[in-house]
Design goal:
Elements (H helix, E strand, L loop, with lengths): L4 E3 L2 E2 H23 L28 E3 L5 E3 L12 E3 L8 E3 L3 H4 L23 E3 L19 E3 L5 E11 L4 E9 L5 E5 L4 E3 L4 H6 L7 E3 L22 H17 L10
Parallel strand pairs: 8-13
Antiparallel strand pairs: 1-2, 3-4, 5-6, 7-9, 8-9, 9-10, 10-11, 12-13
């Protein structure tokens, strides 16, 4: 027999190849089971659950020990039990849904939000991560940037919605997350995610380059009309925001990009 041969029809190379095939098949099976720990069984449009079979879903949940909380288990069986104000446009599975009420207030479509835990995001030290500058006194806007505090907020209709009273910073990432607005009609303060704001002032790139400020200084928000700011979800505490509140606030502004005015839901062509 040739060197490396085990029998006249089997050698070491074949054994290694077969072992690799078995290992790879087992790896695929393992990974396909693991990716079913969350989101399964699948749910049909009518609420019925798909049959996931006997072997494809792990029997035991996987536990995760969180840094500042209790142990969380996957595959808890919890499902979204909220009743959404939507109706199907067509009578077949996969049909798009149309909102039946106020989509921004009802949290549907782009205004949807996840039911995250109702406690603040924390730093590695266990302190609230996102704080206003009135508490995070070691942070301040860069001298090269426009300081939005005191600037007027303009909605998509060009009308005044309020005045920026403070910035909320992420103490772990060293960046601004929210602008705090005092509304013009005395309705109290609310948060504006920095991603939905366009800050125009004398320190903008074009203004520095040309010495001309092309627009009136202020904070411009395309997502909402000025009258819609009063409906923005508020925080329970004036000095901190929870994960659930963050999702609701960002969802409301995100929904405004589609639902703030009727023409935004119309075709582009």
């Amino acid at each position: 027999m040739e060197p490396g041969a085990i029998t006249s029809s089997l050698d070491v190379a074949q054994m290694v190849l077969y072992a690799f095939w078995l290992f790879f098949a087992g790896l695929i099976f393992y990974l396909r089971r693991e990716d079913r720990r969350e989101g399964y069984p699948l749910e049909r449009d009518n609420g019925a659950l798909e049959d996931h079979g006997l072997i494809w879903v792990p029997e035991k949940p996987k536990s995760f020990k969180l840094a500042h909380g209790p142990v969380r288990e996957t595959f808890s069986g919890l499902r979204d039990s909220r009743s959404h104000k939507l109706e199907k446009r067509y009578a077949f599975e996969g049909s798009p849904y149309d909102p039946t009420g106020d989509p921004m207030a009802d949290g549907v479509g782009p205004a949807a939000y996840a039911e995250r835990h109702d406690h603040p995001d924390l730093t590695i030290d266990g302190a609230p991560k996102i704080l206003p500058l009135r508490l995070a006194t070691s942070f301040y806007p860069a001298a090269e940037d426009n300081d939005p505090r005191g600037m007027t907020v303009y909605g998509a209709d060009g009308k005044e919605a309020g005045v920026i009273s403070d910035l909320w910073v992420d103490c772990s990432e060293y960046l601004a997350r929210y602008l705090e607005i005092e509304t013009t009609d005395g309705g109290g303060s609310l948060l504006l995610p920095i991603n939905f704001a366009r800050i125009r002032g004398p320190k903008g790139y074009f203004a520095r380059l040309s010495g001309i400020n092309p627009v009136q200084p202020g904070v411009y928000v395309r997502a909402l009309r000025a009258d819609q700011f009063q409906a923005v979800p508020r925080t329970a505490s004036r000095d901190q925001v929870t994960l659930l509140e963050e999702d609701k606030i960002c969802g409301f502004y995100g929904g405004g990009l589609l639902y703030a005015t009727p023409d935004r839901m119309e075709p582009l062509i």
